[in-house]
UniProtKB/TrEMBL annotation:
Species this protein is from: Sorangium cellulosum (Polyangium cellulosum)
SMART domains assigned: AAA
Keywords: ATP-binding, Coiled coil, Nucleotide-binding
N-terminal signal peptide: none
Entry-linked PANTHER family: ABC TRANSPORTER ATP-BINDING SUBUNIT (PTHR42855), ABC TRANSPORTER DOMAIN-CONTAINING PROTEIN (PTHR42855:SF1)
Molecular functions per Gene Ontology: ATP binding; ATP hydrolysis activity; DNA binding
Name under which the protein is recorded: ABC transporter ATP-binding protein
Length: 663
């Protein structure tokens, strides 16, 4: 049963046609992706389907009573409302269903009214409560707030960053559990772990239909069951996720190419026939001429536009960048301590980790925006971050930086002015280019070059920022969340450019597809000041982490069992014969002392793990101190690792002690 059907939608902005006879149906519970170039009309179509915006013509029918929830790219809130207030506002339907259930239950208890009718109404209200999240929804709200990364649930919206506001809006939509959720770029401003949680939630827990607009190809591939593409005002439907979409689109384009080839062959044949005929025409001849004219007048399929990105590299030495004992702190809390890292020519390092673990702060240090004191001593800048250690750039290292806020753009100026100022040409790759021709490489219509950047969509602004950055000659490219808002076509072009780059790259991103294509290694900020480098792309990194975690769990379980069975009793220890004078001790005094105390340390570490697990299992934590959840999870991970390390050390010392006893 359809939750929504739109028929023959048309929409234009001035002379530009956005939707040209679009028909779309979304079925109950169906998960649909929407893709297309930046500026193609994805957000416009989504707003029209949700009822936020009206089409110029066409009809939309929505299932009676079906609630449609929308996550826009720029959500608006009351400044004085707290983040928790905003999220709880998403429970209006749940509160209404529960209030109805409570009212009917009271009527039944009082014996008033038709008992059979009241029982039926009670069952219906109970079903609505279950559909909208269940009876423990208030606990689940706090869990969702924590999962999406809202660390300050009691802060007013007026003091939150744009990324925090987006996370609050996402949490509000998820708890509302609408019949159709329209999510416009939901993964923007989320870290990789949160995107993976969102992926699981949408597949396993979201009860309604879904219209997902995203550049995140992993999210598309793993969540959606059908993909819509908007292209030149038309919408094409493909079964399956992103991979199936690519395959089916290739087939469609090949069919269009064959159709155009057949049309051209027909025209050549007919024109040749016309040239051979006398001027006097029979009725059949006139009909044939008319068919030829009609075929000739039909427009050919428009060529598929693709971005063409390139950068001029400058020569450099083998080592481009070194971090020596780097420490980074914010508000007195050390995020990174003692980090040693080097970047050599040809390496492309993906940087991942939860928000707030120091990824962007490290980029600031590399860019020279932070400074350590004499001999690498800690020194705070005026904005708050503290840095210690040393950042060393190699000889001739030249860096280009793409920041996630696109702060290098002047929104009042045009696309043209942002790229070239008052000039009409730019230097690219050692040669001079007309600015409009250069902009065409980034999919900008030359006629719109004078359009103010402030009037552009988020994806179009990102393309302007890319175009501006790539006019530089560099050998290191640093990208901070480059995939936010970019369409998949531009992302593919950016990936190809980085792969072919005659230099190196550092990329902070939550886009797993991008990391799999580009990264040669992963630098993971794992919390608690722990930063680890893994060889390979994102999938290789996940496999290594999973393997390490599985090994640690298995070893910890085995060692704990052995520890329990082999722990010496005091009487046994007293009965051991004294070592012979000629024996060579296997354990040093320090090791014997360590062994004597290590069992107690293991017990203490395991007790700490148990305490943290108990805290995280307490529902009141999420209601009263939801902002502490992420920190407790990180602490639990550290304590588990410490317990495993101690058990491993005990086994090592115990083996050595047993060998000494046998000697």
């Amino acid at each position: 049963m359809p939750v929504l059907t739109a028929h023959d939608l048309h929409k234009a902005f001035g002379p530009q046609t956005i939707l040209d006879g679009v028909t779309v149906t979304i079925r109950t519970g169906e998960r649909v992706g929407l893709v297309g170039l930046n500026g193609s009309g994805k957000s416009t179509l989504a707003r029209i389907l949700a009822g936020v915006e009206q089409p110029d013509s066409g009809t939309i029918s929505r299932r009676r009573g079906a609630e449609i929830g929308v996550l826009s790219q720029d959500p608006v809130f009351e400044p004085s409302d707290t983040a928790r207030d905003v999220v709880l506002a998403g429970l209006s339907a749940w509160h209404a269903a529960k209030a109805r259930h409570d009212e009917v239950s009271r009527a039944l208890a009082a014996g008033s009214g038709d008992a059979e009718a009241l029982l039926a109404e009670q069952a219906e209200a109970a079903a609505d409560v279950e559909r909208l999240g269940g009876w423990d929804m208030m606990h689940r709200v706090d869990a969702i707030i924590g999962h999406v990364g809202v660390t300050r649930p009691d802060a007013p919206m007026s003091v939150l960053s744009g990324g925090d506001r987006r996370r609050v809006a996402l949490a509000r939509l998820l708890v509302s559990r609408p019949a159709l959720a329209v999510l416009d770029e939901p993964s923007n401003h989320l870290d990789v772990e949160t995107v993976e949680w969102l992926e699981r939630y949408l597949v396993e827990e979201h009860p309604g239909a879904l219209l997902l607009i995203t550049h995140d190809r992993y999210l598309l591939d793993r969540v959606v069951e059908r993909t819509l593409e908007i292209d030149k005002g038309k919408v094409y439907s493909y079964d399956g996720g992103y991979e199936e979409y690519l395959e089916q689109k290739a087939e469609r384009l090949a069919l269009e190419a064959r159709t155009e080839s057949n049309r051209q062959n027909f025209l050549r044949t007919e024109l040749e026939w016309l040239r051979r005929q006398p001027k006097a025409r029979t009725g059949k001849q006139k009909a044939r001429i008319q068919r030829a004219e009609t075929t000739k007048a039909a427009p050919p399929p428009k060529a598929e536009r693709t971005a063409q990105l390139s950068v001029e590299s400058v020569r450099t030495g083998k080592t481009i960048l070194e971090l020596k004992k780097l420490g980074l702190a914010v508000d007195g809390k050390w995020l990174v301590r003692g980090l040693d890292f080097s970047l050599t020519k040809g390496e492309r390092v993906g940087i991942v980790g939860r928000n707030g673990t120091g990824k962007t702060t490290m980029l600031r240090a590399i860019l020279g925006q932070l400074e350590a004191g004499a001999d690498g001593a800690a020194l705070s800048d005026a904005d708050g971050p503290t840095m210690e250690g040393e950042v060393v750039l190699g000889k001739n290292t030249s860096v280009a930086y793409f920041d996630q806020h696109r702060s290098g753009l002047d929104l009042e100026k045009s696309i043209f002015e942002n790229i070239a100022g008052s000039h009409t040409r730019v230097e690219v790759g050692g040669r001079s280019m007309d600015v409009r021709s250069y902009l065409e490489r980034f999919l900008f219509d030359p006629n719109k070059a004078r359009q103010p950047v402030g009037s552009l969509s988020g994806g179009e602004r990102a393309r302007v920022a890319l175009a501006k950055m790539l006019t530089q000659s560099v050998n290191v490219i640093i990208l901070d969340e480059p995939t936010n808002d970019l369409d998949v076509m531009t992302l593919a072009a950016l990936e190809e450019m980085l792969i072919e780059l005659d230099g190196s790259a550092l990329v902070v991103t939550h886009d797993r597809w991008f990391l799999n294509r580009v990264a040669t290694s992963i630098l993971a900020f794992e919390g608690g000041g722990r930063v680890v480098r893994y060889a390979g792309n994102y999938d290789a990194y996940r496999e290594q982490r999973a393997h390490t975690a599985a090994e640690a769990e298995a070893e910890a379980a085995a060692r704990a069992a052995k520890l329990q069975a082999a722990e010496p009793r005091p009487a046994q220890a007293a009965a051991k014969p004294a070592a012979r004078a000629g024996d060579k001790p296997k354990l040093t005094f320090a090791e014997r002392t360590e062994l004597e105390g290590i069992v107690g340390r293991i017990d203490a570490a395991e007790q700490k793990v148990a305490e943290l697990e108990a805290k995280l299992a307490d529902p009141t934590l999420y209601a009263s101190r939801g902002a502490d959840v992420a920190g407790l999870l990180s602490e639990l991970d550290r304590e588990k690792q410490e317990a495993a390390r101690l058990v491993s050390r005990w086994e090592e010392l115990e083996t050595k002690r047993e060998a000494a006893g046998k000697g």
